From TrEMBL:
Family assignment from sequence similarity: Belongs to the GMC oxidoreductase family.
Keyword annotations: Disulfide bond, FAD, Flavoprotein, Signal
Residues noted as binding FAD in the record, renumbered to the chain: 120, 233, 510-511, 539, 550-551
Organism: Vigna radiata var. radiata
Protein name as annotated: Protein HOTHEAD
InterPro entries for this protein: FAD/NAD-bd_sf, GMC_Oxidoreductase-Related, GMC_OxRdtase, GMC_OxRdtase_N, GMC_OxRtase_C
GO molecular function, one term: flavin adenine dinucleotide binding
Disulfide bonds, paired cysteine numbers: 447-502
The keyword Zinc belongs to this UniProt entry's keyword annotation: no
Pfam family for this entry, one: GMC_oxred_C
Known cofactor(s): FAD
Signal peptide stretch: 1-25
Domain Glucose-methanol-choline oxidoreductase N-terminal: 278-292
Gene3D superfamilies according to UniProt: 3.30.410.40, FAD/NAD(P)-binding domain (3.50.50.60)
Length: 580
């Protein structure tokens, strides 16, 4: 069937990841300790209070509960029973949901890139593309982590949530293309970060069910942990005595009905509050609690607990760029499974989709206009009408064309960084965040080298079965740059200048981090500098993103630091037993 070039590219964007039949059922854990915050007492006491039941908070709370009482506060709901989260075939649907109860809360950075933050138990592991791969040993060494304990913590996570994917034709072609063009050696299947080409893990099992950080709560001691859903923390409470550091001793949170509750630490010198609210939530909540830049806090009428100008600094998001390739033959539905780890600081990955089944909903996967993930939107064009117009344009496409996929590059680091500031004192509202994509020329050069590598894969012999011979690279680049899901002002030279293509088609892959960085806001034990009894343990502490995809390391960090905290508090024999 002859189809126009524009139809091909729209179809390739649209079809990804939505045509597989839904699996029948998934075993749902029976967490007797999980309840709605509306039933919480007005005042309660615990040994540890963990703010944020996300990718780090769940393994952290589960570990601490082995020996102490733990309160885990999650502002969102449960992922269980929501097929838009649990089923691979529905990937992107949760991100498209912009309702107040959505598991994904959309935000738009000041750069103009539409992004999303998790609002659900399990955090970002409930929304992402599922790739599971560890950080490099060098990353662990630079972080000051114990190598053996790191490996044990990864293994603890992997027993529950990690799987080897079944690599099919599209992903195999990308792998063979990477090897053909010299991204070697072939490292087979591995969770490890190794230069060359490999198949990584996935948190989707062979039935297409997602396994998230929430599943790690099966390790928890049900008699020692309390998990409250729809519990939004408004501030951390500090006790301040003359001549000593402010000491965190409680939190104020509200339930879904707006009722106020307070939870306090039990009186013990090693009881702590631990922030695991993510790269936006943790610096935001520190500021709302009076720990942040003095002038900024005073501008919002927030009493200053501790003047810490580096809270909210060092915000980075690894930019991603992709080239879309319409396929002359059907391809499998696949998320990220293969990665090329290059020598120049770019990671090459791919995903694909196939024909829609009759009557299937069209949400368009990672590149839905409703997600807006591809769009770097000028402020005056950030309207529901613009997104609706792009969606409508895609809904009239020929069903036969809904196949193809994309090959993407994501740069390491990045070097470019920005900052986060409060907009309001409402913790439900997004803060203002700027990432400064490609501000550093090294980041831009890595993008250009990465896209050049993607071009070589597309032109490789291994990838030939998935390439229309009458569609040169320049055409693919122009179609990608001018696709209707991208609301950027268009540049006619996008296919000629890869630098311009990088800037025009920049998108997020949700790997943003920073705001409470080690050495600046927290020390190497993740204790907040300048105050007592408060730590931050999540991706906000990262100076740069670990490995090709961070979720494995964020989950590992929650377990790792939970064990470290217990080890520091328990007698040696008991600490050893806890680690088993």
């Amino acid at each position: 069937m002859a189809l126009s070039c524009s139809t091909f590219i729209f179809a390739a964007l649209s079809s990804i990841l939505f045509s597989a039949p839904l699996s029948a059922s998934q075993k749902v854990p029976n967490y007797t300790f999980m309840r709605n915050a509306t039933v919480a007492p007005d005042i309660s006491y615990y040994d540890y209070i963990v703010i944020g039941g996300g990718t780090a908070g769940c393994p952290l709370a589960a570990t601490l509960s082995q020996n102490y009482s733990v309160l885990l506060l999650e502002r969102g709901g449960s992922p269980y029973g929501n097929p838009n989260i649990t089923n691979l075939a529905a990937f992107g649907a949760a991100l498209s949901d912009t309702s107040p109860t959505s598991p994904a809360q959309r935000f738009i950075s000041e750069d103009g890139v539409i992004n999303s933050r998790a609002r659900v138990l399990g955090g970002g592991s409930c929304l992402n593309a599922g790739f599971y791969t560890r950080a490099s040993p060098q990353y662990a060494r630079e972080a000051g982590w114990d190598g053996r304990a790191v490996n044990e913590s990864y293994e603890w996570v992997e027993k529950v949530v990690a799987f080897e994917p079944e690599v099919k034709q599209w992903q195999s072609a990308v792998r063979e293309g990477l090897l053909e063009i010299g991204v070697v050696p072939n490292n087979g299947f591995s969770y490890d970060h190794i230069g060359g080409t490999k198949v990584g893990g996935t948190i989707f099992d062979h039935q297409g069910f997602r396994h998230t950080a929430a599943d790690l709560l099966q390790y928890a001691n049900p008699s020692a942990i309390t998990l409250l859903l729809h519990a939004t923390v408004h501030r951390i409470l500090f006790r301040v005595k003359d001549g000593s550091k402010p000491m965190a001793h409680g939190v104020v949170f509200r339930d879904s009905l707006g009722r106020k509750h307070k939870a306090y630490l039990n009186r013990h010198p090693k009881s702590e509050i631990i922030l695991s609210a993510g790269a936006l939530g943790s610096p935001q909540l520190l500021m709302l609690s009076g720990v942040g830049p003095r002038q900024h806090l005073r501008a919002h009428n927030i009493s200053v607990t501790f003047d810490q100008p580096l809270v909210g600094q060092g915000m980075s998001d690894n930019p991603m760029n992709a080239i879309f390739v319409p396929s002359p033959q059907p391809v499998e539905i696949s998320l990220i499974e293969v990665v090329g780890i290059t020598s120049f600081g770019s990671y090459i990955e791919a995903a694909s989709g196939e024909n829609f089944a009759g009557g299937s909903p069209r949400d368009y996967g990672m590149f839905s206009p409703k997600i807006g993930q591809l769009s770097r939107v000028p402020p005056k064009e950030r309207t529901p009408e613009a997104i609706a117009k792009a969606t409508e344009a895609m809904q009239g496409l020929d069903q036969a064309a809904f196949r193809g996929g994309f090959i993407l590059e994501k740069i390491m680091g990045p070097i470019s960084s920005g900052h986060l500031e409060l907009r309001t004192r409402d913790p439900n509202e997004n803060p203002s965040v700027t990432f400064n994509y490609f501000q550093d020329p090294v980041d831009l050069e890595r993008c250009v080298q990465g896209l050049s590598t993607v071009e070589k894969i597309i032109e490789s012999k291994a990838f030939a079965p998935f390439r229309y011979p009458n569609m040169p690279l320049a055409m693919l680049l122009n179609m990608t740059a001018n696709s209707p899901v991208n609301l950027l002002p268009k540049h006619t030279n996008s296919s000629l200048s890869l630098q311009q293509f990088c800037r025009d088609t920049v998108m997020t892959i949700w790997h943003y981090h920073g705001g409470c960085q080690v050495g600046k806001v927290v020390d190497r034990d993740y204790k907040v500098l300048g105050v007592d009894a408060l730590r931050v343990i999540d991706g906000s502490t990262f100076n740069y993103s670990p490995g090709t995809n961070p979720q494995a390391t964020v989950m590992m960090l929650g377990r790792y630091m939970g064990v470290q905290i217990l080890t520091q508090r328990l007698p040696p024999t008991a600490a050893y037993q806890t680690q088993q």
